[in-house]
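We modelled each protein-ligand pair independently. The example shown here corresponds to the 2-acetamido-2-deoxy-beta-D-glucopyranose entry; the chain sequence is given first, followed by the ligand as SMILES.
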Amino acid sequence: MILSIVLVMLGAFCSIAEPAKILYVLPFGGPSHYIALKDLGLELANRGHEVHVITPFRENNPPPNYHQIMVQKKSPWEFLSQERPNIFTFTEYSFSKYMGLLYQIGYMLNELVFESDEFLKFMQEDHKFDVVINELFYQEPFYLLAHKYQAPLVLVSTFGNSMKTNFYGKNPLQLNVANHEWAVFDPTGVVGRFWNVYCSLYDLFMHKFVYMPKQEEYARKYFKDLPQPVPSLEELAGNASLVLMNSHFSIDNPTAYLPNFVEVGGLNHVKKPKALPKDLQEILDKATNGVVFMSLGSNVQSTDLSKDKLEAFIKVFGELKETVLMKWEDDTLTNIPKNVILRKWFPQIEVVAHPNVKLFIGHGGLISLLETINAGVPILGIPVFADQYLNIHSTIQNGNGAMLEHKNINEHNLRTILNKMLTDKRYKEKALEISTRFKDRPMNGLDTAIWWIEYVIRHKGADFIKTPALKFNFLQYYMLDVLLLVLAVALAPLIVLWKIVSLFKSKPVKKNVEKKKQKRN
Ligand SMILES: *[C@@H]1O[C@H](CO)[C@@H](O)[C@H](O)[C@H]1NC(C)=O
């Protein structure tokens, strides 16, 4: 008996993947990006892999096989040497202005990383990696690290489907159902669909013909002594062995994906809720009329809300029978109604998991959104930028959410939407249904991501899962060569026929002409 247990344990031990050397490249300084992606690196280390992480965020007490290469931390505003604007001004940005900002961040990231001592030292060291994982967010020059170490490239995104990645990786674009990641309008109506096509084509064009050539220049300036020949960034992007997307068909539009495009929605929130702090537990337990929880995430600070909008919130919250928990960073607020509790910070996963929580009010950032979906709580979204609009539109389509645009925040609109969401039971029913289907899969998001990364390591880049279309040129990819062949085959008999006919026709014509000439003479 004991022997068999030992054998079983040995067997289990042997089946653990061999520890691999992994480089995880996360140089972007957005806290929400790091929160979404850090678990992947830490968990790879927990499973025995030797992980090197390039990041501006330091992890305290990581596992010993988790090595941090620190780069400078700068917010986008410091990048652009600008004051941090009121974040809600983004809701007034045009699409092209917003894209321009993102491209700028992409360019500046190069300088930031290449001026970081730890990174430069790391580049001098002798390393071998089995795989290089890069965040998919305006940091294409760093894909060259995969080439430097002659390792397969894995891309991982904090959001879902990305048009550019589809384009470079030759995944079908599906402009009719797949939405541009930063599209703002409801993508189901004709205007929204037009807008989606416009955003997608604008971004693809600018990315390919303006942004990538510039990044290529930066890449050549900063990366030296690479193995020759050096592939283009576009080739590298298309050649990724794996694209891991933080989306899932149970909550997003189902779309067709090549086998190396894998949905791992919920990379960051597999943790079970811990115990709530005692005082909060008490507040939540006692709130038998229910709880409304409002938190606008790490980018949006509550102090960005204008005075009249804030007053509208406080006024309408005060009218509710529910208890309201509100994340608020500013101490100066007075005259707060009795049922409203302000704190600088709430343990979000734990709060939304409490059965008394009836509604979450957030900005539609994917991390808090997925945590709330997981907990089966309806969502009222006040989107600001990036994928937040799309995320909230999905909850509207799914029936577990509603949107209140920043410009429409006032007492009347707030009262109407809150009353609707707190009394109409369908929101909660849908939220529970969606929570169940979101969790119902063979493996959770993090385990799925790790399984596929180890698969790519085991198969040395798994080139066989990449589409053969990557090798096609423009004519071949759009089947224009086939079209030409079809045209040629179809036209050939016609041409022959036409030749023959014209051969016969030409004689009488000549005769006629001759006759006419004779007549004139
Ligand atoms: C594409 O990736 C594979 C490994 O997955 C590698 O062997 C090959 O050299 C890469 N090609 C280019 C052009 O980078």
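The chain has 19 helices and 13 strands.
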